[in-house]
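dumping these here so i dont lose them again. two proteins, back to back, each one seq then structure tokens. dont judge the mess
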Amino acid sequence: MLVLKLIQRRFLEDFTGCLVLDDAKSGQVSPETLVFHFGGHIYRGFKCVANITLFSHGLSPLAFDLKGFLTQDASEHKYLYTTSRSMEILPTLDTLCAAEKASKGGAMRVFLAGGTGFVGGHVRQALLERGHSIRLLVHRKGASEKLAGIEEIEGDATLPESFTDAVKGCDATINLIGIIREFPGRGITFQRLHVEATRNIIAAAKNNGVTRHLQMSALGTRANSEARYFKSKFEAEEAVRASGLDYTIFRPSIIFGPKDDFINQLAGLLRMLPAMPVIGDGEYQLQPISADDVARCFAEALEKPEAIGETFELCGPDRLSYNELLDTIARVMGKGRVLKIKNPLPLMRLVVPLFESFPFFPVTSDQITMLVQGSICDGGWRRTFTFQPTRLEPGIRSYLKP
């Protein structure tokens, strides 16, 4: 238990942050080492009304999450604090100092893996707009547009010796690596690119003293999923949680934007086909989120100590069925209501495995499982990231053509 007295008690109402303890080795903390972070600002020098002794945990300087655990003892005008949070996910002082710097507009250096793809382009832009510099892992230089603030590092996330040294001097690592389909003959597998690459990036961060890590996962990820994609994403998440790093994990729903695969692919089929094939009844629910909003969450997480140790499910403001999504895309393209041909799910599960090994076949069993499972969330992420997310129809109208 920590016994503290706040200089200005009115701050308690706005308290959303962390208490930082600088001297974990001795177990004693002087008043000068107390730091409160709340309301987007950091306040130092709060006085302590009793000596503070830490539990013997042998970890580096820690920050304790106070949200929901700070209570007032009215009789003595003291605030009593206990925590139920795991010691393994308490943020280090290095991370909090970096977050403070970022929240005040200070530049961070970020190692970015998987940053050359669709979402990666949006994350790069969001980081650069906040003044951060990027060390971008690429298979070969010239993979991204030449922009000030981006240093390309040639390497492969599955070969740690090719990039580990490049993580040195960074303030954070971000892993966006992901594939939606496996091609085992070419070494493109979920295990290799989702799990092994994540472990390599974590090891590189720890070997170079980097404490902050952001991880891209997917909405629907769980240990007992029937989809190999989700299972591999969960295994990667577990590696992150066990790493000892100050992590934040994001699980987005379907992501839309100018270069997305999903919405653009459906739009292409609607242009070509007189009727649209639908897997099952098409009533499974989706909640697409824009790539700009996902990228903004990644960038803002670097500034928010309260995001540390959290897994955020990201979804947009519009929840609709797959059938409704097709109608929305058609409407944006100036077409009428879509004629849909429903394909029974049992039949699809029987036929697709026979052809999914061919690269030209448009869908896999895994993708069917994930699609009919649905992809929705409760929007709880907006309690931490308070901006207004992009609505689906105006969002896709900005880039879809008739």
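---- next one ----
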Amino acid sequence: MKINKVVIATLISAVASSAFAADDFNTVVEASHSNRKETSLKLNQSFWGVDASLERVFRDGLGKELNIEVGYPAEIKPGFSITPQVEFTHPDGYVKDSVKPFDLGNTWKFGIQTDLEITSRWNVMFRYRFETAKHGGFTDYDFGGFKDSSGDIRQNTHRLELGTGYEIVDDLELSVKYIGRIYRFDEKNSDNEIKGHNGDWEFKAAYSIGDFTPYAQYTIKNSDHLKSDMGRLNLANENEFKVGLSYSF
């Protein structure tokens, strides 16, 4: 019995040591702040071939949302990988702005991402993601016949991302990404619906200093183009400038 206990303890120790080896376990912590008064704190973990992240977002000093994401990268060949992903977003209470003036609900996001290293300095990526959420009723909003609606609102979004990055000199990478969205709001027990689309251009510069990577990012946010039986409406969005810092260990 004593020998068996020693053997079992040795095996557990060996498995634990292997599982948490430096090559299998990586952590990245990141903090950022933008001109939209949003602050983000993010923890990324890579272990046993799985990528997971936990992000807390604050706006105007108050909690905005919590994001949890899990992905499983599969290397098809050296320099080319495909990653299925799932993300869950839990908002904090009531949010009212020009695009979503209602009681926000939880959002599930299911995506697939491909990454390709064309050269040691040049990479490209593509991601498709389907997002679905059920929100509370609209309030004080008269576009599309949704004014003072008490029914649940279902939002479905198709999101496409296409980006590329290039390391122009050692440790300095410049990247650009296009993010397009096509979405629809449907009211429960009603024919009311709003369809919309928008697209953003994201420009980023990141410089690695050992385990630290400071970065600056500027996003051109195009207008939301909305359409319903009541007509059409374009809603302008504020461009975003963000600075951040990540640390890996």
